[in-house]
Amino acid sequence: MVASVGITYRTVNLRDPAKPDSFTPTVRRLLAGEFDEGPAYSTYRRRGTTDWLLIHTLDGRGSFGSGISADPGVTTLISPGTLQDYGTARDRWHFLFAHFHPRPDWLPLLDWPSVAPGILQLQPSPTAAERITSALSEAVRHQDSVLPQGELLSFNALEAALLWCDTQNPKAAQLDDRLLRAIECVDRNLRADLSVAVLARTSTLSVSRFAHLFRTQLGVTPQQFVERRRLDAAARLLELTTRPISAIATDVGFANPLYFSTRFHTHTGHSPTQYRRQLGSTLLP
User: Fold this and answer.
1) CATH tag for 30-166 (out of 3.40.50.2300, 2.60.120.280, 3.40.50.2020, 2.30.30.240)
2) Is the pTM of this model over 0.70?
3) Cα angle at 52 between 83 and 23, to 5 degrees?
């Protein structure tokens, strides 16, 4: 058992018809942790809990009864008040978990496909599963932080995990993982060469296939997307900094300040100078 955040779970046999209730944690906002359990691990709560329970399998296999299994990469969500009858399905179950009370604006992020009453499940792509693992690991790490902001940092990391889950929810708008890699490439360095050919290589697609898929899913061409990202970043810098306009143009990937000004005017209806004067000045400290 690792990162058990101070909770001892009493284990029982899933096949025992007279199962006693396992310990039920008290959760104020969030309780996150990581368990790496052997074949004897199981939990049974006939009335469930008042919180939501998220379980993301890293290795081995878990079982939620009624033939519902959780293999590596699978993310399971149990709604409040649902019978909790889960445990190791084979020799080992390694998973991250979070008991949490969601903010009201999170509720759309919890509308997953149901595999049993009160049990919801997603099977993220490998790329998304890595992002979910990373975010939940951050939630666990901040859970034990001595910083007074630790709980909020943990809560924010859980929200990031739920947002990554939402990218894999068939009920929500989904984005092809290959396009996601391209978008992350854009956001990492706006000053880089972000030509269609470069982004297509990042996505492991041909240029023509990448351009077609990108426009189909995002409604704009890759070139339009990159330019919008650069201009939006420039607008934030104009609002919140006093950097020279030519420096901002370079920072967001425009080699020619005059061309930047022309495109910025088309994008916002203002020149960079007008934009800073009319909008940015009210936000500067």
Assistant:
1) 2.60.120.280
2) no
3) 55
